[in-house]
Inverse folding.
């Protein structure tokens, strides 16, 4: 069984039921339309309607039509088709259309620059591309530099001259499933690494990986037909899509919210009766700050049906969850750990029954194994720090066209995550830090995540990032980038005084007040911070030396 079978089953059994809802909270609330009443380009030209809805039957028909369009243009099995669109109702039908045609879906980060888009399209051997109106200027800059891309599609009228309107074209295509037999071992998707440790790598997955992620997510969070999942993160990322896979498996409705303001999140939960919400740490912090400052009034919202809040994509400060439970004591809470190399979230997860272990990322997920190993690949004793490695049905096939990088992380079927972790006496795993982020200061290993978690306990600190700066005497010192809460003032001396509770060797030696940069999935962009601050520090260190 492959993942497209689930869509076809849902269309057959629950065809008229809503599958997807798109909310555009910046628009007027009274504008609500179905798929047939509005296209994406109408939203681009006239202001997207507040609400659009797509049934399971229409979802499947649209996917079939796009698949048949690709086949009519000569797409061959396992050829690559890129997707460069913001979250919208068109996104998932395009994705599933690529799969149904036997192609390989290649989602692209919507924050990529024109040059990064060009690089990724070339790396993944993309032969067809679908992109939305938000990317016209970036595509204009590189359209003539993409010799491999033979087809470019645009959702509606008004696209550049080198594109075709796929919404119009698919209207002439059959809505029946194409006669393509898919196997679990067929290539299915290429995702790109987040780039937090360098330029993105292309991660290749087969259909087995995608199906396994459906089963893992549904097993962990128990989605039923009655659940409604609020999806806020970008669909190009494995985190958002693989959490939505639980809705696909249970044939339940999902809401794509285009915006992250706290009042928009609460309004969406209220209006759409959402039961499950996946948040990134910054969004959860913003929501709590808005509640505690009085900027949002909880009395204006109906939230009783909201049963589960879960977080992933980055280490979760225990203090954040303690704050959350004060305001939402009835919520189940879960955290999920994963990588794009492991088909997104779930290879390790906490479990809603283990909230007493907040701070841990949990135990191996459904059908997964996990170990903590030393530099020689030997299991470390409980409590000692080593590298987390995982094994399961969602491990990538390889880094596409990069056998050297593949060999570094895939060994005997185990995926070496690059994350340093420890396991307690009960078998729960705690992230310590990225292997490449560990700071060695005066011979001592400093794990930035531990220091960041401590700094976020301050009433004045909204966010924190710790990086290593070169130092002539100690090799490296810890520098803390501090983002203060709104309308709060604080000095370096106050931060240093707060850090006296830390062991001396763990205390930051330098304080920088600035916004903490995070990528769309919530991960701190430490390469950007190192590029910004390390050069000057290196010069200073050389002078002192």
């Amino acid at each position: 069984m492959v993942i497209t079978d689930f869509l076809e089953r849902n269309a057959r059994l629950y065809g008229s039921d809503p599958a997807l809802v798109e909310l555009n909270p910046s628009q007027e609330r009274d504008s609500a339309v179905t798929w047939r009443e509005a296209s994406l380009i109408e939203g681009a030209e006239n202001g997207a309607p507040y609400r659009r809805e797509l049934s399971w039957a229409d979802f499947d028909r649209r996917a079939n039509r796009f698949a048949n369009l690709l086949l009519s243009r000569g797409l061959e099995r396992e050829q690559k088709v890129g997707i460069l669109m913001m979250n919208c109702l068109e996104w998932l039908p395009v994705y599933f259309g690529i799969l149904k045609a036997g192609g390989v879906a290649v989602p692209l980060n919507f924050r990529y620059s024109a040059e990064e888009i060009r690089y990724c399209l070339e790396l993944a051997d993309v032969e067809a591309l679908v992109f939305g109106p938000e990317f016209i200027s970036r595509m204009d800059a590189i359209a003539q530099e993409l010799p491999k891309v033979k087809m470019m599609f645009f959702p509606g009228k008004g696209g550049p001259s080198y594109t075709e309107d796929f919404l119009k074209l698919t209207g002439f295509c059959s809505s029946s499933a194409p006669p393509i037999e898919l196997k679990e071992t067929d290539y299915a998707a290429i995702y790109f690494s987040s780039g937090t440790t360098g330029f993105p790598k292309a991660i290749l997955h087969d259909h087995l990986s995608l199906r396994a992620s459906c089963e893992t997510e549904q097993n962990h969070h128990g989605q039923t037909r009655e659940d409604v999942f609020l999806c806020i993160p970008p669909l190009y990322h494995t985190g958002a899509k693989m959490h939505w896979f639980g809705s696909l498996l249970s044939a339940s409705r999902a809401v794509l919210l285009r915006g992250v303001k706290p009042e928009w999140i609460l309004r969406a939960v209220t209006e759409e009766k959402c039961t499950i919400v996946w948040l990134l740490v910054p969004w959860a912090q913003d929501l709590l700050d808005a509640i505690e400052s009085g900027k949002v009034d909880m009395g204006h919202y109906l939230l009783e049906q909201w049963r589960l809040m879960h977080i992933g994509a980055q280490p979760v400060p225990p203090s954040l969850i303690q704050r959350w439970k004060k305001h939402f004591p009835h919520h189940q809470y879960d955290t999920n750990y994963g990588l794009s190399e492991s088909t997104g979230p779930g290879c390790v997860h906490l479990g809603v029954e283990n909230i007493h272990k907040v701070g841990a990322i949990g135990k191996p997920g459904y059908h997964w194994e996990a170990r903590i190993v030393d530099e020689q690949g030997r299991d470390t004793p409980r409590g000692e720090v080593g590298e987390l490695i995982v094994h399961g049905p969602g491990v990538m096939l390889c880094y596409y066209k990069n056998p050297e990088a593949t060999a570094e992380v895939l060994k005997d079927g185990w995926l070496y995550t690059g994350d340093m972790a420890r396991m307690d006496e009960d078998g729960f795993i705690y992230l310590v830090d990225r292997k490449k982020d560990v700071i060695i200061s005066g011979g001592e290993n400093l794990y930035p995540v531990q220091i960041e978690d401590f700094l976020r306990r301050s009433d004045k600190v909204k966010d924190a990032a710790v990086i290593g700066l070169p130092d002539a005497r100690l090799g490296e010192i810890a520098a803390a980038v501090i983002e203060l809460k709104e309308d709060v003032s604080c000095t370096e001396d106050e931060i240093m005084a707060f850090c006296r509770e830390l062991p001396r060797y763990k205390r930051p030696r330098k304080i920088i007040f600035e916004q903490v940069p995070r990528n769309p999935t919530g991960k701190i962009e430490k390469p950007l911070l190192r590029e910004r601050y390390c050069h000057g520090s290196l010069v200073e260190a050389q002078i002192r030396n």
